[in-house]
Structures are given as structure tokens and as C-alpha cells.
Amino acid sequence: MAIGGTAEGVDGLTRAGRSRCEPPPHRRPELLYLLFDSSGSMNELRQAQALSCAQQYARAVLATGAPVVVVNFALDSTFSPPTHDMLDVQIALRAASDNRATVLPTRGLQSFFDPSIAADLVIVSDGIFRTTPDVLIWYSYFLELNPDNRGTMYTVGSPGHREAVGRLRDIGFDVYMYEQLHRGP
Length: 185
Hints:
This protein has about 180 residues and is an alpha/beta fold. The chain has helices spanning about 45-60, 85-95, 135-145, 165-170, 180-185, and strands at about 30-35, 70-75, 75-80, 120-125, 150-155, 175. Helix content is about 30%, strand content about 20%.
């Protein structure tokens, strides 16, 4: 496992009390990078699940006093400035973008990365995207930048078995399936 990742997402769905899209109770990130999939592969149900999950995580982090950077991604990415306001997060989650494809942001994140801050990078997506070597290098770099950094992916729809999701898990991301979180133990 890469530096900065945890084993929580390997079997995290069977842990008692894990029923929401939010940091574990002991986790208090200083900053949240919330990457939200707004691509065309996200049908209405997946979009609603993704919005619910992203808002849950953002609320939990904002409640600790940490800011949130929303990155709305599809063919291109829209970056919001760090905010402590849930209304700003909700607006950024609905930012228009070219939804013809799904490309995870990479270099655009560089200006936000700070090795002195323990951050969470959370991806909310259906998992229908390619994990290019560039993506894996940047996301591994994020995990290695600070040993307290954490990467998490919440998948919506019927994902979780795609190669892209597996590759993120391989570099240290925790991966949770939205439907299983809400079914309960």
C-alpha cells in the first residue's frame, strides 16, 4: 500500500456504524478536495446519489472548521476556491461542464496541494473513467505528500468492479459503494 493510504476501504463496508459518506469519526482533515463527477455517464439516479454523498462528506468536514475545494470534473474540470460555506459547495457541485467524457483532474490540483496540511481527497463518481499513468502518478503524489493525507472514492450506480476503481485502491485509496453504505449491515 502507498504511503498515506489506509486499509479502511478494503473491507470498510462491513464495519459497524459506517453508513454515511463522511470521514471516519477519528479523522479531522484540515482541508477537503471534493472531486465530483458531472459526466454524461451519470444518469439521474446516480447524479442524485452522488450529490447526496458529496454533500454529506462536505458537511462533515465543514463542521470541523476545515475548508472544502470542489472540483467538478467531466471532459474538463472546474475548480472552486477553498470555502467554509455549504452554499458555495452546493453551487460548485452543480457547475456546468462539458459532460461528453470523464477525465479525472491531475495537474490542475497542483496549485492546491500543500505538504503542511493533512487533507482528504474524495472522489464521488460512477467509476466510469480511465486511470492513466498521469492520474495514478498525481494521486500517488498526493498520498505521499503528507503521511496524514487520505484518498477515498465513493462509487454510485453499480460500480466497484471496474479497473479504474481497482487501480485507485491499489495506490492506497479507500473505496466504498454508495448503495452498500445505505443498505446497512
